[in-house]
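User:
Note these tokens:
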Amino acid sequence: MTEERTVEPLLEPREGIPPVVADPGALVRVVESFAAGAGPVAVDAERASGYRYGNRAYLVQLRRAGAGTALIDPIACPDLSELDAAVADAEIVLHAASQDLPCLMEVGFRPRTMFDTELAGRLLGYERVGLGTMVETVLGLRLEKGHSAADWSTRPLPEDWLRYAALDVEVLVELRDVLHGELEETGKLEWAREEFAAVLRTPPPVPRSDPWRRTSGIHKVRSVRALAVVRELWATRDRIARENDMAPGRVLPDAAIVTAALEGPRTRKALTEIPAFTRSGARRYMSEWLAAVTRARTVPESQLPQPSTPGDGPPPPNRWPDRDPAAARRLAAARAVVAALADEHHMPAENLLQPDAVRRLTWEPPAEITDDSVRERLRGLGAREWQLALTAHPIARALARLETKGEL
């Protein structure tokens, strides 16, 4: 790994803070500039998570040799497809790409090839892979990360926020170059390329049929009637948040929904005794909250939600010893193999092989345990070829050993 070095603060973009691109003419000039540039294109996006409804981009930053840095307002310029076409042949460098790709694709920016500096760091065994830490560890430069959780929907954006945003892509290509070299030296470059391609192939998440079930603290709610309260309050909050373009938690926190479900308030006064319902964001909708609770209390039995909905995968592993002891032993054996291999190759176990694939394989293994059957099962569960080359044989051997010992 990179030797320790003196750390220098990265305080200003090399060419200064560029003006924010917020009109078609300025965007055309950026497109032309980036089309004429050379080499990889560093890209980042800033969202307003926790402030606005959804995860759209409120600023897109790019940097390329020969083009410099561009800061684009995707609210004023919501279609970046021409910029996307201008750099279609370039490698796009992102950090934690899975976080930024959905909002970039919403504005028409769809990388064909990619280098993810966070994922590269994981494969190389870096203990901390946040952008600031990686830049400091690898390049010896310190990035200011104080505005990462800011409300990027703010207009106009403050100058120090724009400086922060420009610096996020200032040295991203340099970081990519060093990590690329380390991947090559350690024989992991092809592994990384497979991982990057897999991230780009990942389809957008399918909306959950019962998104209200992800309410934090819902495990405390035991009765189906109380679950109906969670469902009705969640749906009411989601509608209000969407209509007002606010993060749902700023309208009403999850904890208030769960408390209302547990206490079952029947009157406006009882509802106001739950503190979160009286704060400014929620108080103006008091009639709607009470109506939601009333609907839940009066909904017919046939329309009450069930305690849980069956998933398409195995149960939580802590239930395996009781439900299927043989599967629990298979899981323990497979996990031990993956952990040992991950340690040998200096990377997190979850990057060597997806935990969900390990669980599904060991809950429903092939009828006959062989290298080929395990490999095909894991391939069908999304494992990449480099992962199969490292894990299929030792996992098959471990599972076969259990069969031989009569433990299955």
